[in-house]
Write a structure and sequence with these properties.
The complex is a heterodimer.
Chain A: E1 2-8, E2 11-17, H1 23-30, E3 49-52, E4 55-58, H2 64-67, E5 71-73, H3 86-93, H4 103-116, H5 122-129, H6 139-153
Parallel strand pairs in A: 1-5
Antiparallel strand pairs in A: 1-2, 3-4, 3-5
Chain B: H1 3-10, H2 12-18, E1 49-52, E2 56-61, H3 70-82, E3 89-93, H4 110-137, E4 145-147, E5 150-152, E6 158-160, H5 161-164, H6 198-201, E7 218-222, E8 231-234, H7 237-241, E9 246-252, E10 255-260, H8 263-276, E11 278-280, H9 290-297, E12 304-309, E13 319-327, E14 339-345, E15 348-353, H10 358-369, E16 376-380, H11 392-403, E17 411-414, H12 417-423, E18 430-438, E19 444-453, H13 469-473, E20 506-512, H14 528-545, H15 550-556, H16 561-574, E21 586-594, E22 601-610, E23 617-627, H17 634-654, E24 682-688, H18 703-718, H19 729-736
Parallel strand pairs in B: 2-3, 7-17, 15-16, 19-20, 23-24
Antiparallel strand pairs in B: 1-2, 4-5, 5-6, 7-10, 8-11, 9-10, 12-20, 13-18, 14-15, 14-17, 18-19, 21-22, 22-23
The chains are: A alpha+beta, B alpha+beta.
Chain lengths: 155, 737
Amino acid sequence: MKSFSLRVNGVTRTVSAEPDTPLLYLLRNDLELNGPKFGCGLAQCGACTVLVDGRPLRSCVAPVSVVAKREITTIEGLGTVEKPHPLQRAFIDEQACQCGFCGNGMVMAAKALLDRNPRPSDGDVKSALNGHLCRCASHNRIVRAVQRAAKALQP
Amino acid sequence: MSASRRAFLKAGGALVIGWALAPRLGLTQTRPAALPGSLNGNRMLDAWLRVDPNGTVTIFTGKIELGQGIGTALSQIAADELDVDLRRIEVVSGDTARTPNEGFTAGSLSVEQSGTALRFACAEARQILVAAAAARLGAPAAELTVRDGTVGAPAGASVTYWELAGAADLKREATATVKPKPASEHAWVGKSVPRRDIPNKFTGGAAYVQDVRLPGMVFGRVVRPPSPGAHLLSVDEKAVRRMPGVVAVVRDGSFLAVAAAREEQAIRAREALKRSARWRETASLPPSGDGLYQHLMSAPAPGQTVTEKTSAIAAAAVKTLDALYTRPYQCHGSIGPSCAVAQWQEGRLTVWTHSQGVFPLRADLAKTFGVEPKSIRCIHAEGAGCYGHNGADDVALDAALLARATGGRPVKLAWMRDDEFMWEPYGSAMVMKLSGGLDAQGNVVAWSHELWSHPHSTRPGSSAGVNLLAARHLATPFPPVPPADVPQPSGGSDRNAIPLYDFPSVKIVKHFIPESPLRTSALRTLGAYANVFALESFVDELAAAAAADPVEFRLRHLKDPRARAVIEAAALRAGWRPQARGDGGSGRGVGFARYKNLACYCAAVADVEVDRATGRVRVARVVAAVDVGQVVNPDGVVNQIEGGVIQSTSWTLKEAVRFDRTRVTTRSWAEYPIVRFTEVPEVEVELLDRPDERSLGVGEGAQGPTAAAIANAIAHATGKRLRALPFTPERVKEALA
């Protein structure tokens, strides 16, 4: 086991793990963050998505050694129930889920999208989220939530 | 005993017949009066609610949250009957130590069963609280009013529920004599109240069983056999026990699992066990492709007549049609693989589980471990959406078996993606053989529907056997329960096989095949998805043969006004043009069902575009009209229908479990594609408002009608009828060639 400094949501934490350990397990188990989810462990579904230096990354296959010292953001870093980020607010207002298990990945991928394209078309949103699977089939609500957030974030 | 009472009891024979019709007489001593909904099996008021001095009301329900919003809907019902603000309601659900036993959360029955119980229990509790207030205030109960738990007298004096919490005795049997409020007096029911479970889910709050963390907890993984017919011959447990972090390796027959201090260590140990394990495999699986359906139809399962209605009019048939429809094995495909946390302490087991039925799960765990049910506590914690019986119960046994070897430390055991795809119980493959006769006027005079299917319900909790996966793999295995079909009127394999149309002559026959080499159980709608797909496709085939418009043809054969209303509403909203022609590439189709012939009514109109070159079908838009009786939460209903339409689109266009004669080869999303954002239809939902009708289950209403609407739209667009699900590009191209 090796020691790694992880900078997550603006706070630096030291964790010990084998270098090839996927980031997801450190976030969930060592840092006790609930946001990123284990869905497939194969980078197929997107439920584990976090932002690394602002880019969406599938934490279930990203070795800790590769992401250590980079800026990691999880959904917990966006906002809280009391002070939600406009994206979180919009997903709640649109009731954009049934089970919500995919929601973490949807919000994080949408965050990356809106950061680089603040006025996306519905097509842009669908393309950006197309690698994310939702089984309850809340897709249309999710697209509406992202557009609602985009509007709220306009200056 | 008075003479009149004696006389009454003497007439006991008559009363036995009468009691169900007059449930409130309360005169039979041997059989208690029937109470509405789940109150009947859980008769004490304090089993359903508690009023606390801190200004809250806690409601207890045996139904559990699956992302369908049941906790919110039930709190709306309770708040209305009690006259308290919704924010005062706390919900405790699915805990064998704390809540009523309401069996499974399944069958779109939660509002009907738990909602009805809470409605009557809360109405009665309000009356008890008001009576206590009347005594306290010295005013007649009839003159008191309640506002958010404050009971006021006309003169101005008041007392709150919270002050009365000690005085009002809810430790009594419900009588269901207090009439719940009419719809016109509802403040919360009928409103799109935001769901209480959602804020946590989008902010990283603890929301799922995966988020349960206990002191000293270790992580578990299971090593499942490579195929359904496999037996474990040998494995190098010793080497794995020496791996970093490994706490325990459990081998019992062909059950193999490992616990480690860290999750990634458990996953590595699982890989090592897989590498060293030697299995004896047998080719136990049926043929795939078209051979599967031949295999089903040749199974030694004699036809059982489900219903038969004959009429001399059938002889007037001048044209008869036959068609064979098929549906493959399909997955629940939860986004999060099944997970449970288990802990043994001094012979007692606690399990945190996303099972749909904590009491039935407890019963099967008790049998497996040879302990009394009371020494096991199952506590529900949400999982990813399940859509029926997935691995939730199985993983609970896996965790409990492994936790026996960790010296009292709790174990969180999660399945890997391939465990879920290979071992969840599938929705059964099915064959539906339809035939029908038209008279000279183009009316249906004869109808028959013959089907072949494996079981649709092999959930735990039966009195015989154990229906948990690992129990089959133990050195001393527990045989699974001999499967039975779910009887009519709701039906299992034959669910929705009986048409709601007024056909004069109808025969429904089922071939129920209990033995299934691939485990099957409840997938959202049981047999209804396939039966409605076949039935409603065939209605269109007959309409075409009669040169009739599909909407007009349906209405012509349908008397039920609520059924007619949803079809008319969907057609109107979709802009249905009677007798419109498909243009070879785009088309429109309709499908209808009343789920189970008992729950909500739903009609769907689908617009599709077929790319003739690639065979790709795009469902552009689906309009659904729904009648669920009284609506508790309109947005909740719309969400269920939207999700049902899109999920059914996915089943219908894409989904089939892959396997060879030995192994399931669907292991990941790569082998089991589902619809993605760029493939989902726009969905519009029209909700028919029936505030004075009983609430009807909605969760499964859209699956069948959507499949049929898509099939009918493709036939409308191309003139080619697709009868084998799913409609993959290969199948479509082949049909168009």
